[in-house]
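Tutorial handout. Part one gives the primary structure; part two gives the three-dimensional structure as tokens.
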Amino acid sequence: MNLGLTLLAIVSISCVSCTKNNDSLINNASSIDPGNDPNFTIIANTDAGMKKYNRKVIVFGVDIYAAKNVEDAKLLYAANIMAQYLDNNEDGVVDNELVVDKMIENKAFLFMWKNQSTDFLDAQPSGRMGQDLGNDETHPSFVPNGRIGTFDAGLEEVWHIITNAGYAQAYPTIFGTIEGTSMSNAMDIARGGKFTTIPNPYPSNTWYTYNDQTCNYDCQGGEYIYWTMSSILGAQENRLNEISNEWKLNTKTKVQTTDIEAYGLLTNPIYKFPTILPDGTYMH
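Part two.
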């Protein structure tokens, strides 16, 4: 075979391969139900490092991925929760652009799984910050039903990626989770001291007593901003019996009168935190 025919053969083989790959992508995309949400569309996912997740929704530039067996309704619900946290007055514009810019800069993402043993992310893609959310721990009816019944973990996990990849990056000396930040100093008061390991027992008269031994100081900070903010927004108002072993200030009034430092930070209008608890119906 002469050189011309050899090159032709190589090009022909490559084109056949490209056609097969393109057909696969087209077939995958065509099998994805876009859903019926008025603001968000489910699309096929082909992002590098995220092959376990066949589809995603993009919210203000932030990816929310879903494994094959995750329910479309719960994927769209998570998208609505994120949108309501970031655009709390639902005017179509994010409330704190710096926070969202940092999330995008850090390539923040949420990934949803059905079966943790098979769907969980093997390794976080380089240069990205992620957070998981389980299909079966997501309960869209929790807020509409009066904030009673099985708690919706979507309210927590979506908030974690916003604070970790957004607020902590935008205001590192204020909302960073390392020792010495404003929020960490408030946490030290709530825990009765600066503890890099879990005390046993916690000092008396403390209100934040998270006791997961795998949760280091940085992790404790992430949980603390969740507990304080979710209580201010009213998510914990009917859950004191469930959560008192970890967190005792389950209402806005309790946070305001007891955790004065944290309340001041989270209600300071400079930072544009949400003031309304999301219910999964963004701009509906």
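Part three, for discussion. The mean pLDDT is 92. DSSP finds eleven helices and five strands in the chain.
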